[in-house]
Amino acid sequence: MINTSGGAQGKVRRVRASTHIDMTPMVDLAFLLLTFFMLTTSFFKPYVQDVILPEKANDITTAPPIQDNKALTLVLGEHNKIYAYMGQPSAAVTVTDYSAQGIRKLLQEKNASVKGLYVFVKPSAKSRYQNIIDILDEIGITDIQHFAIVKITAEDTKLMLAAH
To answer: What is the pLDDT of residue 91?
Structure first.
């Protein structure tokens, strides 16, 4: 749009034209493009680990007992400590951490020496959620087939206090 103003009569003056550009269509186009790219882009793909849950049984049956020499229990304590024992709770507790030389080495050794190893993870009230994620990652890395997250018992709590 160009505006011209009429000058005074009698004098010949140069006509000055002022320009005004309407920006409305450009702003509309910018918002349309912004909306299009926001709706067609995937923002964040979460990193998840697949956990295969067993099917729900129709009849209530008790599970067959697991031999003590095939059951490894990992009690997750405070300050990123893991208390591990084979079989029933006893004084033979291994205290380790989440490093590759710690829990991963222990899981690899037990998985290699015990055929059909069962791992029971017992998080305590003072453990962190990240500890459960880390232990599930280590179980997946060491390719242990049978594992479960179970509730901590009073014996396990006493065992942690005694080993601490």
So the answer is: 64
The pLDDT score that the predictor gives to residue 102 is: 87
pTM above 0.70, yes or no: no
Domain count, the chain: 2
| Judgement on whether residues 15 and 95 belong to the same structural domain of the protein | no
3-state SS, the chain, equals CEEECCCCCCCCCCCCEEECCCCHHHHHHHHHHHHHHHHHCCCCCCCCCCCCCCCCCCCCCCCCCCCHHHEEEEEECCCCCEEEEECCCCCCCEEECCCHHHHHHHHHHHHHHCCCCEEEEEECCCCCHHHHHHHHHHHHHCCCCEEEECCCCHHHHHHHHHHC
Q: Are residues 30 and 97 in the same domain?
A: no
